[in-house]
Design goal:
The protein is an all-alpha fold. It has one domain (12-244). The chain contains 13 helices and no strands. The two termini are 29 Å apart.
């Protein structure tokens, strides 16, 4: 998922206004088609935290899939976003509150009418989702806490994928694969000396490459977070929340 719909031409204030959730909020009336496309992109990226919330709330796998698809279909309907105010802030908070409202007010009626017949808005691999949920279930977290944790996990996955694609596009795929374990200081990571030998580099060069990798990871993570909040000031707060989600 890219950070912008148009290329940036200035500093952080310039590129920030093109981020996805800002696009949804600013274009929902003036340019509803652009707003809808931006919202659909976000939905495709962040479906699993909602699926996990539905499962943790007691729904069976098939019902959780139907619920997620039905919710996104409702969310993407024309005029749904007119009630969304810019000050409501984070996409994460908006999405979970909207899902809860959907489950309380519309889900039972819609599901009775269309059991198993919801249009596919996002591609859901239920088998893979269930494998992931089985691991999540071991945490024994309440639905809201599990949602936040999986939201954070999804952001980190998006960040790592964007970083990997960036390195591959610049012909540094092999370097990335060797340095990737160093991002999280994985115990299984090779030493800098071992990486240097494998890549025919100096140990100092590897150390510098790891520093650059970590710095670029942090930059992309901030960019990914920027896509889900409505103001630049919220980035740091959301970043703190993201890491606190792994604390309990």
């Amino acid at each position: 998922m890219s950070s912008a719909d148009t290329s940036a031409t200035g500093g952080s204030n310039t590129w920030f206004v093109t981020t996805r959730w800002s696009v949804v909020l600013s274009a929902k009336e003036a340019d509803p088609e652009r707003s809808s496309q931006a919202l659909e992109t976000l939905c495709r990226a962040y479906w699993y935290p909602l699926y996990a919330f539905a499962r943790r709330s007691g729904h069976a796998p098939a019902d959780a899939e139907d619920l997620t698809q039905g919710f996104f279909a409702r969310l993407l309907q024309k005029d749904y976003l007119k009630s969304v105010a810019r000050e409501k802030g984070r996409f994460r908070s908006f999405l979970l509150a909207s899902l809860k409202r959907f489950m309380a007010n519309e889900w039972d009626r819609q599901h009775a009418q269309k059991r198993g017949g919801f249009a596919e808005i996002v591609s859901i691999d239920t088998a893979a989702a269930e494998l992931r949920f089985a691991s999540d279930a071991a945490l024994n977290a309440p639905p809201d806490a599990l949602f936040d944790r999986q939201w954070a996990t999804t952001l980190l996955e998006q960040t790592l994928l964007a970083l990997q694609e960036e390195y591959a596009a610049s012909g540094r795929a092999t370097l990335f694969e060797h340095l990737r374990p160093c991002l999280a200081r994985d115990e299984s990571a090779l030493s800098y000396a071992e990486i240097a030998t494998r890549l025919n580099l100096t140990e100092a060069a590897v150390k510098m490459a790891v520093q650059r990798l970590r710095a670029r990871y942090r930059e992309i993570l901030r960019r990914e977070i920027a896509e889900t909040v409505s103001t630049e000031a919220e980035i740091e707060e959301e970043l703190r929340h993201l890491f606190s989600a792994f604390g309990g």
